[in-house]
Design brief:
Length: 285
């Protein structure tokens, strides 16, 4: 199963919203925020209400504008990724109008990766003469830089605090982890954010979930009828959109979304041309 088939970034965008729970209402999330007129995009931009203090561990560092750069499980957070995050953040500030409408003290940078970035940490300490401080499980602050910076290592996150981001991986550690995800998903199965994250985790860790099915069959009972209904609904919606748009790639996009059970995306794409173009880029159409 290749990275091309597994769309990690949309799942991360859903997962980071899940992460904040009730506090998400104080935040505005934007996926693949385009910088300027050229194809430069911030993975996630999170705007916070100025007066709202966050209790969530990954949000304690947040100010008003928060740039998040995410590396998928098969990727590695390297030194140049670190500086790319810098560049995007400063470009975001400089690209606003009127001039200096976003202040430097209103910005933060977060990097999210699965594995401990040993070489990057060495560079930050040895070459930049900054400090790395472990603030919480899996959450490291870069101390002494101009902007507040945190590096989140998802494999080290607390299971209690960050069940979904911790398990947004193709290396699920045990069948027990799969069972815990199933149990929590039961409470939120009508929530499209949870559907998006659960879908990618299941497809990336089929063996672990197959073991979990053999033990309790919870996932099969929970999702069988629901997924079949969504598949049929998606096929019907796909036909309508294909006729309306009359474009070959729209039909192909609809079929791909339908196969993934992403019915909400099909509906949104039908009325939002900008979002439709974003989906074309996501699937390489």
């Amino acid at each position: 199963m290749t990275e091309k088939l597994l769309q990690w970034h949309p799942a991360f965008f859903a997962g980071i919203q899940i992460e904040f729970g009730e506090e998400a209402k104080y935040l505005e999330f934007k996926s693949e925020y385009v910088l300027g007129t050229k194809p430069m995009m911030i993975d996630v931009l999170i705007k916070k209400k100025e007066t709202q203090a966050l209790k969530k561990n990954i949000g304690k560092i947040f100010r008003r504008y928060n740039i998040v750069e995410y590396k998928s499980p098969d990727d590695y957070l390297c030194i140049d990724d670190f500086y790319k995050g810098y560049a995007y953040t400063y470009f975001y500030k400089a690209d606003r109008m009127p001039v200096n409408s976003i202040l430097l003290e209103e910005l933060t940078i977060s990097f999210v990766c699965q594995n401990y970035p040993r070489e990057l940490f060495r560079h930050i300490v040895a070459e930049r003469k900054l400090q790395i401080k472990r603030m919480y499980a899996g959450i490291y602050y870069v101390i002494g830089d101009t902007l507040p910076i945190q590096i989140i290592v998802t494999s080290e996150l607390s299971k209690k605090e960050s069940l979904w981001l911790r398990n947004l991986t193709n290396q699920l550690k045990s069948t027990k982890d799969a069972e815990e995800l199933i149990e929590d998903y039961k409470k939120h199965k009508k929530n499209t954010l949870y559907e998006s994250v659960m879908d990618i985790i299941v497809r990336a860790n089929e063996e672990k979930f197959e073991e979990a099915r053999r033990m309790c069959k919870a996932l099969e009972e929970l999702m069988k009828d629901e997924l079949e209904a969504k598949k049929n609904e998606g096929q019907e919606i796909g036909k309508e959109i294909g006729i309306k748009q009359g474009k070959e790639r729209v039909n192909e996009l609809t079929l791909k979304l339908s196969a993934l059970g992403r019915i909400e995306d099909i509906l949104k794409a039908a009325s939002d041309e900008e979002y439709q173009e974003q989906l074309f880029r996501e699937f390489g159409l």
